[in-house]
Design a protein that fits this description.
ten-stranded mixed sheet, two-stranded antiparallel ribbon, alpha/beta, 219 residues, 14 strands, single chain
């Protein structure tokens, strides 16, 4: 399976958005530029469909020199609900979009996504969503050997719980969003095991924000 890094931009109180489904800018321009630079080092950028619907991101490299090849956008969209008007479909010819759906998705939804420019990959589905190991296996088969996951909270927590994350990029901003905000690690964060993660680099200042990098120990 591919090497997986997880990037999370969060407030001091561990929130990634002011409210569910609400687009919230947390980190500053220096941190945003660093994220674009990070993308150039990965074959693919992975997000959940909820993140696309809430933030409508392009997930391309625009604030840093381009990497060797265009970053492929990988979207988990089990029910095939991505809108054809999503910004990431506007430059699909230059940066491919791969959508992972459940295997029993209606053929009409698959055709709609393909008409928008996506390459659709049905994978097994369980109680907790799409089978992430199956997603990563398919990603490897199509030539994606490294992935930067950029959210959301449910996907981040699932990847961590299943031991699929090799590196964490945590961008911490000097703001607080309060109890109505969306937790970076969902409501079951206390069940995550961080004992295998250690600092990989010294903390880095990005404007007013701080980048913390942790690597999972190989045991």
């Amino acid at each position: 399976t591919p090497y997986v890094a997880l990037k999370l931009a969060m407030s001091l109180d561990g929130r990634i958005a002011a409210a569910p489904g609400e687009r919230t800018r947390i980190s500053g321009p220096e941190a945003e530029q660093e994220v674009h630079r990070l993308r150039t080092g990965f074959d693919g950028v992975l997000v959940g469909g909820g993140t696309v619907r809430a933030d409508d991101p392009r997930l391309t490299v625009r604030m840093a020199p381009s990497g060797r090849t265009p970053v492929r956008r990988l979207i988990l969209d089990s029910r095939g609900q991505l809108p054809a008007s999503a910004a990431l479909f506007e430059d699909v010819a230059d940066a491919p979009v791969h959508v992972f759906t459940r295997q029993d998705l209606d053929e009409g939804d698959i055709e709609r996504l393909e008409s928008a420019g996506a390459q659709v990959h049905p994978v097994p589905h369980g109680e907790n969503g799409l089978d992430l190991l199956a997603v990563l296996s398919v990603a490897w088969e199509i030539g994606v050997e490294s992935i930067l996951c950029e959210g959301g909270a449910r996907l981040a927590q699932s990847l961590l719980r299943e031991g699929l994350v090799q590196r964490l990029y945590a961008i911490v901003a000097p703001v607080t969003l309060g109890s109505d905000g969306v937790s970076a690690f969902s409501e079951h964060a206390e069940s995550l095991d961080w004992s295998s993660f250690s600092p990989a680099l010294a903390p880095q200042t990005l404007g007013r924000d701080t980048l913390i990098v942790l690597d999972r120990d190989e045991r």
